[in-house]
Amino acid sequence: MVLLTREEQFRKLFPKAPAFRFRQMEEALFSPVFKSFADISNMSLAMRELLTKEISWLAIKEVQVLESAKRDTFKAVVEMVDQKRVETVLMKNARAQWTVCVSSQVGCAMACTFCATGKMGFTRNLIADEIVDQVRFWNIFLRERPKLAQRISNVVFMGMGEPLANYENVKETLSVLLAHTDMGMTRITVSTVGLIPMLRKLLADPKWPAVRLAVSLHSADAVTRQVMMPSSFPAFLNDLAVWTQEYFEKFDSRRRHLTFEYVMLSKINDTEMHAQALITFARKVGNVRINLIPYNFIPQTSKRSAEQAKNVYRGSLPGDFAHFEKTLEEAGVTVTRRRTMGDDIAAACGQLIVDKSES
Ligand code: SAH
Fold first, then answer.
1. What dotted CATH number matches 58-351?
2. Could you report the per-residue pLDDT of 166-202, keeping only the tens digit for each?
3. How far does residue 148's CA lie from ligand 1's centre (Å)?
């Protein structure tokens, strides 16, 4: 099935329309008052009618929305025109505004062993409209619930998929969000497994916006990282260190916008040896911020293979977690801890999965 972007659909409908007409439509999609194409009063009635008939206002539709017991996290399963499904999450952030977590692919090819999405395999890339509309979906959701805080202040690419494996669509999404929302570049974070060729590409790309980047490091020991993340390779840590230095040279002012993520797995990557390896690595690359992530349990499915059954991860014990954190701090490494949200509705990091039979 060929997926047409909104722009392609628009051009098919109105081949002779001047370029500003499409921009006008795109702007309307982000209007806080418009609910449909019919509301775009500065467009001709005929145009509005045709748009309403031929193009959907949202490229995704709601299948299910779950709310966490604390009411600070919502997870939506949404469906696209080809019936494929992804999940998107809305979380209350420290400023009591909302952060939207978007998916960039249906499934993921990276197969990280501790991540639920990694177990789905890869189905397809999302087009920019489908990623942008996850943010619009939550905007509409909030507008329908005036008692909730209304402002979406941040977007993180930490849902399903590897954003840099879908480079062009993610870049387009960033440019649309930056153009049509009040979110600036520091309010958007792209999280990546660390695809070195793509990291190099964005560094050389004048059109890649200076959004925040988070690299899923998870271990500064090459063997451990390879076990956790099959996409790793022996020279990865060295390549990442070289890239990080280039990044800092090129964008010195962006220093604070690069983070390394580190999911804490008991006895796998939280030992003294791992702490020391991480300290050495952090010093080598110029002290990037390390964000420690509590491991979120992945609900087991009946389809689980015998091999996977043996390979069940557990999150670091509280004492080990604290010790690891303290060891880094004492060595002068900047370290933060991620709050876990929405784990009761399987909306937390690494828990997003859509059953294959449904997707
Ligand atoms: N593909 C991107 C986005 C993944 S999700 C990436 O690899 O960065 C965002 C973060 O959640 C990543 O750091 C990912 O490694 C982490 N994560 C995956 N599974 C997790 C789990 N079960 N518990 C906690 N964090 C997890």
1. 3.20.20.70
2. 999 999 999 999 999 999 999 999 999 999 999 999 9
3. 28
